[in-house]
């Protein structure tokens, strides 16, 4: 079974592609029943249907290829609940030879443009979307000499926004962006940041709304509608401020609703369309200057928490209930007010992992609680929080992780605003599609519909539970649980959510019968149109102990799921306890699926589709997600946030990096992630997702220093160096966030980025090194780990 091909069709990876019929057998699988869903997977032939979906009146499932259709009576029977549903009049001409795209067997995923109106068109059998085969993939129905299409314009639910004197004028507001700028940034760094922000404002559509908040020890909200001079509203940086207080101090108040009229907001200038405020926004940015330097021995006074809170209050006050982002640009830790990371006096060190674990981080818990309250406000208002932190020191990303992750926001940790990494990440967010709209998705929800035998346990990823329950929701909770609908502030084509399930009414399940799960993703696109993507997947129940269970195991998806579960546990347990939990699960897994003679470790064997799973767990135990010894709390928060939203390929690359060898003997070849792969006369290209390392063997490094690559007699050597450089640049160019590119020679200090990830099969304790590279560590090698696993698994 090719799971990658299935993912290309469905956008899903299942840890188990065949499910047992009893709860006890499902629990014995060790790896939970789970699906990794990438809602906006790019499909080459995704049908986009210009009409609203047909929904089952009984269970809420959308019409799909698994539904039974009675063409004569024009009735469809839901595959989830067997509910009987009539086709509307617009499906008058449906028959076996003329069916809409949502019923094509090859279209397990379709996307709808919501809010389209039906209208009758003349006969046009060549019009795209008409016909009876997949080649006509827009789902319009051909009926005799007439054809029926549902066309119309997008509708917008935003009737009252900032400056909404426009209500009824036909103006459709675009997404809102509030830029929160830290002016404690050094003057040269601030100059670069200002230049990039000016570039961003020119890329926004004219109907997009823009706001500007600037902070140091005070928070300043700019009135962009006041052009005579700069007009700002000041907030004290040391005091927590509520949403109502923000609106009151900004002077934003609502007119009471009158009969037949909608409630609107008084004209104000804190959030305006770019077409109205681009000049004043540009002037305000150009006028920003770095705040005076702090006293000797003190950090600058930053009120990051209050600045973000005020930005949220601004959006709440302006009735921006969807499609909005708060983008924070900071260069250091918050030192005053709610959300404080460290005191301004340099005698107080910024918290480490040891400080947090031992309770010696005085501000950590209180700041985390503040940002958790803020994340609730972000979710309620459908606001995305992005963090761009460029500093040699920590800025408090660990405390900010919850609101950034739960809103689906973007996090970037860098050293300088004057870097290609920052520019690429910022520009990536504001890319446009082919129609010139911002390639962004906002205010998304994911709804799951399941057959009655499947229960929903929860989800892990950049989403929030909406606490909507029905009969398909399990009492057992994992992650964001207690619901069948989740909210996401934003989505992109890589966003991946892990959903967890359990067996429901096991007494009613028949082996070899099918079950269905439907993923309904609704979101607002950059042009403010509403879209709904529906993916319907089917799998089979199999009898307990059936070989079908083994054949349906996807070890890559399973490793990705277990990695998410592990980092979810790190929020409540110490790292050593999480490692013990992983070890316990792995021993149970090996004992369950291994083939062996009792008490004979040498007889242990795993089938090929299980054999890599222990190796993934070995690397996960040693990864920066669990072992945080060499990472700051900010770095760890960033690593975990990224793993929690990446798909199978990306997350496995983070856990078990790839290693390619370049030599004179032929094209690049993949080699083992082992210290034995290091040779003096080869170049290694190492990719761990966050770092891309070019490691030159000692001989290669020596030849390069002698300038052999510039000698025409050594053309092959020049081509070898160029080949690995080109491949490394390609890896860096296509990935966001941009990984760090490191070039190092064997035995140099920078080589530690590679050595730390290699299997330490040769260490300082090895009796025979054979002249190979030595890794100084107390970690056991992969072979020793596997030997211990086999010994424990065969004990029964």
Automatic annotation (TrEMBL):
PANTHER family attached to this UniProt entry: PROTEIN TRANSPORT PROTEIN SEC23 (PTHR11141), PROTEIN TRANSPORT PROTEIN SEC23 G (PTHR11141:SF22)
Single GO BP term: intracellular protein transport
Molecular function as annotated in GO: GTPase activator activity; zinc ion binding
Primary gene name: LOC113734219
Its job: Component of the coat protein complex II (COPII) which promotes the formation of transport vesicles from the endoplasmic reticulum (ER). The coat has two main functions, the physical deformation of the endoplasmic reticulum membrane into vesicles and the selection of cargo molecules.
Family under the similarity heading: Belongs to the SEC23/SEC24 family. SEC23 subfamily.
Name assigned to this protein: Protein transport protein SEC23
Ranges of residues in domain Gelsolin-like: 668-754
Domain Sec23/Sec24 helical: 554-651
């Amino acid at each position: 079974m090719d799971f990658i091909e299935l993912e290309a069709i469905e956008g899903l990876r299942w840890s188990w592609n065949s499910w047992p019929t009893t709860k006890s057998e499902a629990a014995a699988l060790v790896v939970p029943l789970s699906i990794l869903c990438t809602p906006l997977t790019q499909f080459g032939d995704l049908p986009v249907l210009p009409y609203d979906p047909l929904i089952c009146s009984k269970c809420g499932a959308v019409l799909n290829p698994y539904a039974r259709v009675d063409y004569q009576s024009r009735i469809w029977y839901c595959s989830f609940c067997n509910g009987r549903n009539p086709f509307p009049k617009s499906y008058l001409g449906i028959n076996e030879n003329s069916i809409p795209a949502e019923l094509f067997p090859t279209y397990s995923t379709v996307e709808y443009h919501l809010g389209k109106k039906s209208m009758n068109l003349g006969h046009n059998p060549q019009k795209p979307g008409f016909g009876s085969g997949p080649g006509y993939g827009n789902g319009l129905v051909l009926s005799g000499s007439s054809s029926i299409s549902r066309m119309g314009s997008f509708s917008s639910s935003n009737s009252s926004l900032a400056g909404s004197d426009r209500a009824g004028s036909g103006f459709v507001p675009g997404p809102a962006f509030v830029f929160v700028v830290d002016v404690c940034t050094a003057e040269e760094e601030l100059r670069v940041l200002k230049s990039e922000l000016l570039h961003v404002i020119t890329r926004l559509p004219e109907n997009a709304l823009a706001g500007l908040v600037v902070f140091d020890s005070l928070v300043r909200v700019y009135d962009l509608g006041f052009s005579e001079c700069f007009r700002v509203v000041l907030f004290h940086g040391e005091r927590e401020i509520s949403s109502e207080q923000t609106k009151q101090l900004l002077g934003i108040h609502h007119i009471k609703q009158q009969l037949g009229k909608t409630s609107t907001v008084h004209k104000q200038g804190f959030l305006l369309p770019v077409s109205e405020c681009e000049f004043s926004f540009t002037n305000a940015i150009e006028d920003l200057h770095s705040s005076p330097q702090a006293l000797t021995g003190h950090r600058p006074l930053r009120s990051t928490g209050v600045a973000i809170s005020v930005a949220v209050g601004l959006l709440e006050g302006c009735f921006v209930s969807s499609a909005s982002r708060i983008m924070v640009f900071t260069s250091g830790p918050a030192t005053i007010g709610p959300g404080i990371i460290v005191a301004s006096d340099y005698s107080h060190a910024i918290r480490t992992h040891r400080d947090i674990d031992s309770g010696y981080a005085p501000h950590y818990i209180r700041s985390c609680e503040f940002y958790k309250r803020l994340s609730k406000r972000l979710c309620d208002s459908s606001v995305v929080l992005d963090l761009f932190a460029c500093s040699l020191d920590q800025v408090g990303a660990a405390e900010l992780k919850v609101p950034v992750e739960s809103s689906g926001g973007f996090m970037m940790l860098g050293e300088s605003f004057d870097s290609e990494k920052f520019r690429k990440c910022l520009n990536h967010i504001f890319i446009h599609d082919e129609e010139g709209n911002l390639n962004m998705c906002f205010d998304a929800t994911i709804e799951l519909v399941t057959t009655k035998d499947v229960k929903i346990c929860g989800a892990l990823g950049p989403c929030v539970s909406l606490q909507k329950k029905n009969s398909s929701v399990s009492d057992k909770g994992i992650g964001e649980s207690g619901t069948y609908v989740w909210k996401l502030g934003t989505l992109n084509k890589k966003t991946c959510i892990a959903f967890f399930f359990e067996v429901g009414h096991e007494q009613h399940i028949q082996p070899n019968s099918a079950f269905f799960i439907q993923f309904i993703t609704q979101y607002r696109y950059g042009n403010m149109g509403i879209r709904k993507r529906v993916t319907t997947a089917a799998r089979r129940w199999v009898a307990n102990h059936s070989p079908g269970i083994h054949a349906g195991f996807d070890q890559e998806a399973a490793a990705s799921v277990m990695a998410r579960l592990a980092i979810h546990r790190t929020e409540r347990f110490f790292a050593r306890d999480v490692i013990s939990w992983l070890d316990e699960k792995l021993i149970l897994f090996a004992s369950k699926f291994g083939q062996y003679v009792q008490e004979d470790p040498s007889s242990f064997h795993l089938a090929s589709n299980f054999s890599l799973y222990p190796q993934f767990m070995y690397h996960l135990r040693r990864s920066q997600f669990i072992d945080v010894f060499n990472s700051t709390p900010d770095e760890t928060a960033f690593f975990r946030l990224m793993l929690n939203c990446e798909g199978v390929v990306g997350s496995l690359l983070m856990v078990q990096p790839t290693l390619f060898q370049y030599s004179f003997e032929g094209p690049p070849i993949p080699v083992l992630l082992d210290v034995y792969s290091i040779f003096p006369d080869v170049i290694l290209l190492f990719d761990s997702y966050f770092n891309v390392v070019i490691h030159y063997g000692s001989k290669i490094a020596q030849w390069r220093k002698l300038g052999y690559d510039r000698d025409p007699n050594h053309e092959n050597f020049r081509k070898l160096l160029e080949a690995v450089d080109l491949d490394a640049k390609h890896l860096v160019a296509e990935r966001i966030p941009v990984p760090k590119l490191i070039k190092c020679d064997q035995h140099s200090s920078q080589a530690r980025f590679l050595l730390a990830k290699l299997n330490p099969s040769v260490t300082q304790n090895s009796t025979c090194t054979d002249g190979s590279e030595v890794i100084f560590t107390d970690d056991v090698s992969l072979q020793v780990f596997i030997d211990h696993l086999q010994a424990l698994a065969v004990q029964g």
